[in-house]
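Please, structure for the following, as tokens.
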Amino acid sequence: MVSLAEKMAANIDMSAFSKAEELKKRLWFTILALIVFRLGTYIPLPGINAGVLAEMFNRNQGGILGMFNMFSGGALSRMTIFALNIMPYISAAIIIQLGQSVIPSLMALKKEGEAGHRKITHYTKILTVFITIIQGYGIAAGLQSISGADGSSAVMINGFVFKFSTIVSLVGGTMFIVWLGDQITERGVGNGSSLIITVGIIANIPNALAQTFELGRAGQMSIITILMLLTMALALIYVIVFVERAQRKIVIQYPKRQMGMRMTAAESSHLPLKINPTGVIPPIFASSLLLLPITVANLSAEQGPSWVQTLSQLLGHGQPLYLALYAFLILFFTFFYTGVVFNPQETAENLKKHGGFVAGIRPGKNTADYLDYVITRLTVIASVYLVCLCIVPEVLISKVGVPFVLGGTTLLIVVQVTMDFINQIQSRLLAYQYEGLLKKAALVKRKQR
């Protein structure tokens, strides 16, 4: 059954958009902030030999470096101040969230509401700085070991000076992106971090399509294969939209209640549980944990010891070890993050407190067990869906050799974030429409008086 809110959202008067000045300001702020982010992906690190770097990325564009370069919006291939993108912050958030499950002080902060959330965010940013310093040093050391075909080095300045300037530039760039994402979330529309990642992916789509069509023109890929890949991409988009909108609705009954001097009638509602409550979090978290260490290993592999070269090959794009680790991390974060966003015991207690109960289930522990049973089944479905969505296209792409932007992970991020962005715009327009109706009703009452 379609809810009243969904009906109103479907019939939003678009003339409300022309009157929603606050929404327009938020949209303009979001657009300008994303433009600033894109400009930053073209500011190079000091002391980089662009020719040697481009040569190295051309040799490895089909590998894992190409995938991380896609997430960074091309900033890694240009080795800019935004080369690490927002991935260190995501890694820090993963560590802090895992710590909330085992460290008592973090568990206590989690229960302190908004004040605790601010402290946790502060700790996450401090940890982001330390992670960026470590990763920045790894990238600097890796770049110093790279040389071109003519023997020229990828670094043109003194070793210590280059390492120091690289670390400072990457830390500054990463923390600026974190700040920019927070500003988009607070003063714009949508989740800032997700939008930054999505814009980086979308920026690579024209180039990826051009590369695919060039492969067809050069005869390295048949027209039928290109059509099959595009059809697969469209089919994946349909599946993503279908699953992300799907819900398991649990009927909640409310008995007759005494409200002041009157008795309210018995009523029923529903508790909507999404098939995939985690959204894009598991693939992003899994990619974040895998891509950055692998990137450092790849940068060091050409001139590094043999074990680094072997590890780089084993963790190459489409290799069994990489796919197995990727699938395991997606499964882990699907179950972990579901436990973070949905607590069956807390939900059952809230229902009992407000007099609600699941039909045929006793309130309290039985309701919590039932909700835990339902959410576990949904999480199993979501984990299988995410693994298939992210792994199967990765295998096909690694075999065929098309750009990563047509993979399941990237399509999931782009479609999910776009849906969330549109839903937020609709919600704000709907709220503005409600506000207009209330004002009209107040004017009518005044005229009647």
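Residues 1-13 have pLDDT under 50 and may be disordered. The longest helix spans residues 408-448.
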